[in-house]
Design brief:
Layout: H1 2-16, E1 28-31, E2 39-45, E3 48-56, E4 62-70, E5 76-85, E6 98-109, E7 114-119, E8 122-128, E9 145-153, E10 156-171, E11 177-183, E12 186-196, E13 201-207, E14 212-222, E15 225-234, E16 244-252, H2 254-257, H3 274-295, H4 303-320
Antiparallel strand pairs: 1-2, 1-8, 2-3, 3-4, 4-5, 5-6, 6-7, 7-8, 9-10, 9-16, 10-11, 11-12, 12-13, 13-14, 14-15, 15-16
């Protein structure tokens, strides 16, 4: 009776609320790959933006411009751009730099890593500059590192988290390329990450406990951020329903998980007794699945997702043999 009432409450609640779609543009270096020698630094703090452009003038002399102000909503900015002149060189006595108004600037963020920039009448498409990986969307290498994430739904606010580390590669017998890893602190809980070119989504599977798997389907909404959907399901079964929201952030770099001294939020990892961990995970995941069963909608899982899941399960099984 309690579950029935809870389900009715959930359906009524969902009918009265809508999921807000938000954009979260990334701070960092931006460029247009076909415009060599020119680039942009964009920094966003709260709803304030600062943009600096390094380029050349008509005489091919280096020059830089900047602009700052308040974003309009979460996806656009309009303001004035000024030219910085009469600055001081390194080691020179400090002078008084000047800023000369040079025209208008508008930025329309089409996503976290893509934007349309119009500056002083010139329009160009810019993207985040991935100078470390060459192409952060390469599959499945974008999953390298440690990811700390939360899954749940604002419409049924019970949340849980995972920390998953990917530090090696694996090629399945069907030729699929995977990154292989584990739950941080337990190498017994194996994880795989792969990319499906047909759907444009990445997927992860985690051997979570004696009885349960966790499955994640997502896209990268930033160099260090992934967003998508999460399911918990029994081994021997499969995923069902619309799943729960999943968002995760990279908390250790690729170089760090490969054993180098490199950026990470935590420099040590303590391995836990697998038996103790499995018992704790089993109880938590059983609770998670009960809550997810209550909160999930009736939307059927697309066959394409089921196909990706089946491939990942076969690859995971081959590793564990």
């Amino acid at each position: 009776m309690f579950i029935k009432r809870l389900t009715i409450f959930f359906l009524l609640f969902c009918s009265l609320t809508g999921a807000a779609q938000a954009n979260m543009p990334e701070s960092g270096w931006w460029w247009n790959a076909s415009e060599a020698g020119r680039g942009y630094s964009i920094e966003i703090q709260d709803n304030q933006i600062f943009v600096a452009a390094y380029t050349y003038d008509a005489n091919k002399q280096p020059v830089w411009y900047y602009s700052s102000g308040t974003l309009s909503g979460d996806s656009s900015y309009s303001g004035r751009v000024v030219k910085a002149v009469n600055g001081s060189c390194f080691g020179c006595s400090q002078g008084t730099p000047q800023s000369l108004d040079s025209g208008a600037i508008t930025i329309k963020f089409n996503g976290a890593k893509d934007a349309t920039l119009t500056i002083m009448g010139y329009t160009t498409q810019i993207t985040r500059f991935d100078f470390a990986n060459g192409d952060n969307t390469r599959y499945p290498n974008a999953c390298y590192g440690e990811w700390s994430g939360v899954y749940g739904s604002p419409s049924f606010p019970v949340y849980n988290g995972e920390r998953i580390k990917f530090n090696s590669t694996y090629i399945a017998t069907d030729g699929t390329n995977y990154l292989k890893g584990y739950r941080t602190g337990s190498t017994a809980n194996i994880a795989l990450c792969s990319y499906d070119a047909n759907s444009g989504y990445w997927s992860m599977i985690l051997d979570s406990s004696t009885s349960y798997y966790q499955f994640f389907q997502f896209k990268f909404t930033g160099f260090n951020r992934m967003e998508g959907t999460h399911w918990t399901f029994l081994k021997g079964g499969t995923i069902a329903g619309s799943g729960e929201n999943w968002v995760a952030f990279r908390t250790a770099s690729k170089s760090f998980v490969l054993g180098l001294i490199a950026p990470a939020t935590e420099k040590s990892e303590m391995m836990v007794d697998p038996n103790v961990l499995q018992t704790a995970s089993e109880a938590r995941l059983a609770r998670d699945k009960s809550l997810a069963d209550v909160s999930k909608g009736g939307t059927p899982v697309q066959p394409q997702i089921q196909d990706v899941l089946s491939k990942q399960l076969r690859a995971l099984s081959a590793i564990q043999k």
